[in-house]
Amino acid sequence: MYPDSSGYIYPPLWGQHSFNVSAGLYRISRLASFIKYNMPFGPEQLPPQLTDEQAWDVAAFIVSQPRSETKFIYDWPKIETKPVDLPFGPYSDAFSEQQHKYGPFTSIKEAREKSINGLK
Fold first, then answer.
1. Which residues pair with 67 in a beta bridge?
2. In degrees to the nearest 10, what's the CA dihedral of 111, 116, 117, 120?
3. Cα Rg for the chain, rounded, in angstroms?
């Protein structure tokens, strides 16, 4: 393996040169899915060698580490369409930033469904 133009063979998972908080991988569900199907590194990832819980644990550890706080607040002009695991507001619901970052997401999804269907 050889470094790319940035000098890294593999991009850093946290710190100044890692992906910022607006990147898709900062969403824990996307990162957990990527981890499950790409770890451990090697030619054979199917069937996955990590359980869902292991992948989510690794993802939670990675997103809890410091990184660039660059945010693109205009990516979701309709806040009610934001993914439930997008970890910064504003939100169209009363759930905390912590829950939007780490879950559980089921209660957020259920509340969104009720709101969409006009239920209280």
1. 15
2. 40
3. 17
Which of 4, 23, 108, 3 has its CA nearest to residue 34?
Answer: 23
Q: What angle do CA 73, 67, 99 make, to 5 degrees?
A: 60
Query: Of the candidates 20, 19, 26, which has an alpha carbon nearest to the alpha carbon of residue 85?
Result: 26
Rounded Cα distance between 23 and 55, Å, is 18
CA–CA gap between residue 60 and residue 74 (Å, rounded): 25
CA 56 – CA 38 distance, rounded (Å):
13
From 57, 68, 12, select the one nearest 35 (Cα to Cα). 57
Q: What is the pTM of this model?
A: 0.69
What totals of helices (H) and strands (E) does the chain contain, helices first?
A: 4, 0
Task: Give me the helices (H) in 28-102, please.
Answer: 28-38, 52-63, 97-102
Phi, psi of 72 (to 5 degrees): -110, 85
Q: pLDDT tens digits, residue range 24-50?
A: 888 899 999 999 998 888 777 778 999
DSSP code, position 6: T
Tokens at residue 56, please? 């989510």
